[in-house]
UniProtKB/TrEMBL annotation:
One of its GO terms (cellular component) is cell outer membrane. It is found in: Cell outer membrane. It comes from Ancylomarina subtilis. It comes from the Bacteria. This is Carboxypeptidase-like protein. Keywords: Carboxypeptidase, Cell outer membrane, Hydrolase, Membrane, Protease. The keyword Ribosomal protein does not apply. GO terms for molecular function: carboxypeptidase activity.
């Protein structure tokens, strides 16, 4: 099987050598070459290239069809569009880019971009997700390789700058999506988000100090916008070792569009190929479907509707308190988001409505749980710009959450054997979160921007009043260097789970400074941040925590060795302390280093190949102190050390590779892809588990070596 795929890649590469190419050079207004500019066909973006150090490029001509437009883009410059009539007259073309005018002159720009976009650490587009060496085409997995991501569980749920994922929020079209990951409890298989990359227009990552035009987040924020315009119709069928899916995009009248997709996930082939690496995973399956509809109702009125349904099940061997057995779960979830945007003479009025409903079941040993989760979100926002470089935005939001749990719980938390006694418990929770905010952004000069915001809640149901506030400043020292300083106070409510059934309010104080330095061939980023989080939460060992202190130092660099070869390196030093019973202990994620390295080769005429390496110390954990035996019930109760997190697991190392190849046949594209996760089959320790009487122990490991491959058939239309 591996030989077959190698032959496919070789055949694909050989086929592409025979295609015609267009050559050219990209320069700026000073006649200097522009390095690393993006050059791509509007109708065939998969054939895109980047310019070399001399601004030169060579791009394949699509076969059997003349392209309509060539696009050239680079940060700080306007996107240049060259028509086919201009191209076919020349053997070699010269393209001059013009600097982008930063001052907002039309309401269209105001409507498209978030008011806080200048203060995001990272802005990602669809192409960035596909080119990410670790994303596997998943928008949230692409975030995990960012220097600011401190995700240590191999899942896609964003964990930013030392905070838990529950304290950050993912926003889709102005509506928060809680638990945006499918099958999040599966070790090694639950690491994909709910979002299809093809529906995404832009993705903004606020690693800390999240913008207060959104609430209920005290760590970071990921803001995702769906596609607003289609350049052409397209159809896609994808198949892989574990899935089969389709995706259809179609333009409608008056700049309207519709996108429809569905996927079926199955386990037979995947488990068979990786049978020596997935000892705990027994079976999984899922079916999902999505619809994204955008209607231009009038010149200044637009309606967008996104709807998504997923039905998933899994069966995995799990461990809890000396017992190992089957963990079986299924989840049915519906997400529906509707947006109405109305452009006025002075700004943009937006109304957002979201519904998120899930019905789930879970069974492990003598623990049975049936849950129902509902979230209704509605917000109204108005944003406008003035001619003297002021921007304002204000709004109101209401988030209603309802969680119902029908549980059979072990009578003694440590006795979970199938035959052990349990009791029935019914829990109904609800929470209203009504908030209002105002956001102001002022461009004092072309190189200096200031923003400040305040957000307050309108207490209901005996809630306490609270307010959140922030201030951010961005200063561009010159065209190559910039500083971002931000700080503030933020709040969010806990998401109820098995260990904690309440909506406890959390508060955090944050300050961060980010420095960027961009050279011709290299980019450098340095960040220093500190946080103090206050709340009331429990971990899986039923420890209660009130406060967390976090301090971190990030460094990253990105270097182009040529138009196709790219190297990146990042390292994070993270200090985390937690408070329990008025005593401070090191947090599980106190890391002396968190290193991420990637080497990528992207050539449309050959192949895309990347290798990534992630290394960090093992996480801290609290060891077993003693075991108490109860002769009457013949049960064993573990007692953990009072010195919390005084042990570490072995160091974590993960080397992974992935490759893909595109074969262009007229309007049809064939994309083959393959990946090997944990190439060296490193046994990275995840948790420690014991036998029934705790007399012996062994480690449970993160994902071992995993093979994955697939093929995508894509048809482009007009």
């Amino acid at each position: 099987m591996r030989l077959t795929w190698l032959l496919i890649f070789l055949f694909t590469s050989a086929s592409l050598w025979g295609q015609k190419q267009l050559t050219g050079i990209v320069i700026d207004q000073n006649q200097k070459p522009v390095f690393a500019a993006n050059v791509y066909w509007k109708q065939h973006p998969q054939l895109g290239v980047v310019t070399d150090f001399d601004g030169k490029f060579s791009i394949l001509l699509p076969t059997q069809q003349n392209p309509k437009q060539l696009l050239v883009s680079f940060i700080g410059f306007k996107t240049q569009v060259i028509t086919w009539n201009e191209i076919k007259q020349q053997e070699k073309i010269v393209i001059q880019l013009k600097e982008e005018n930063r001052q907002l002159k039309t309401i269209n720009v105001t409507a498209k971009d978030p008011i806080s976009q200048k203060f995001s650490v990272i802005r990602m587009e669809k192409i960035d997700v596909y080119l990410s060496p670790v994303a596997s085409g998943d928008p949230l997995k692409a975030i995990t390789f960012l220097p600011s991501s401190t995700n240590t569980d191999e899942m896609a749920n964003p964990a930013l700058r030392g905070s838990s994922s529950d304290k950050s929020r993912v926003i889709l079209n102005g509506v928060p999506i809680l638990k945006p990951v499918r099958n999040s409890q599966i070790n090694g298989m639950g690491n994909f988000s709910l979002f299809n990359t093809e529906i995404i227009h832009k993705q903004y990552v606020y690693a800390s100090n999240p913008p207060l035009n959104y609430g209920n987040t005290s760590a970071g924020l990921v803001e995702i916008e769906t596609v607003q315009k289609l350049d052409q119709n397209s159809s896609q069928i994808s198949t892989s070792l574990a899935s089969l899916g389709f995706f259809i995009s179609k333009k409608l009248k008056k700049e309207s569009l519709i996108q429809l997709y569905g996927n079926w996930q199955f386990d037979d082939a995947f488990l068979n190929v990786n049978k020596h690496s997935l000892d705990l995973l027994k079976d999984f399956k899922s079916k999902d479907a999505g619809l994204n509809l955008r209607l231009k109702l009038h010149d200044n009125l637009c309606l967008n509707s996104f709807n998504y349904l997923i039905d998933e099940q899994f069966n995995v061997l799990d461990y809890m308190y000396g017992y190992q057995g089957k963990s079986i779960a299924d989840n049915l979830r519906l997400i529906s988001i509707t947006n109405l945007h109305y452009t006025t003479n002075n700004g943009l009025l937006s109304l957002n409505l979201g519904l998120d409903a899930a019905k789930n079941k879970y069974h492990f040993a003598n623990l049975f749980s049936r849950g129902l989760n509902k979230t209704i979100y509605i917000s109204a926002n108005y944003k406008w710009s003035t001619k003297n470089r002021h921007k304002f935005q204000f709004g109101l939001s209401e988030e209603y959450k309802y969680d119902r749990f029908h549980d059979s719980i072990p009578l003694n938390y440590y006795n979970v054997k199938t035959e052990a006694p349990n009791y029935y418990q019914k829990t109904n929770l609800n929470n209203h979160n009504t908030e209002g905010y105002i956001y102001w952004n002022y461009e004092l000069a072309s190189n200096f921007s200031l923003s400040t915001a305040a957000r307050i809640n309108l207490p209901t149901s005996k809630q306490n009043f609270y307010w959140s506030g922030q201030i951010s400043m961005r200063y561009n020292l010159n065209k190559d260097q910039s500083f971002l300083l931000s700080g503030g106070q933020y709040h969010n409510y806990n998401t109820p789970n098995y260990y904690q059934r309440d909506y406890a309010l959390n508060r955090s104080y944050q300050v961060a400074i980010d420095y960027d330095y961009k050279l011709e061939r290299s980019n450098y980023h340095l960040a220093l941040y500190c946080k103090k989080e206050h709340g009331d939460w429990k971990d899986e060992n039923y420890h209660n925590f009130k406060d967390v202190r976090i301090a971190g130092l990030e460094f990253s660099t990105n270097h182009f060795f040529g138009p196709y070869l790219n190297f990146s390196l990042s390292n994070t030093l993270l200090k985390q302390d937690i408070q329990n019973a008025n005593q401070w202990y090191p947090g599980s994620q106190s890391l002396d280093y968190f290193t991420k390295i990637s080497l990528s080769f992207n050539h449309p005429g050959l192949l895309n190949l990347s290798a990534t390496w992630i290394a960090r110390p093992g996480l801290r954990y609290t060891p077993l102190k003693e075991v108490l035996h109860n002769p009457a019930t013949d049960t064993w109760q573990p007692v953990l050390s009072e010195d919390i997190n005084n042990k570490r697991y072995a160091s974590y190392n993960n080397l992974s590779v992935n490759t893909s190849r595109i074969l262009q046949l007229g309007k049809v594209s064939l994309i083959a892809f393959a990946s090997i996760t944990n190439l060296l089959n490193k046994k990275n320790q995840n948790t420690k588990q014991y036998n029934t009487d705790y007399s012996s122990s062994e480690f449970n490991y993160y994902e071992k070596r995993i093979y994955y491959f697939g093929l995508i058939w894509q048809l482009k239309g007009r």
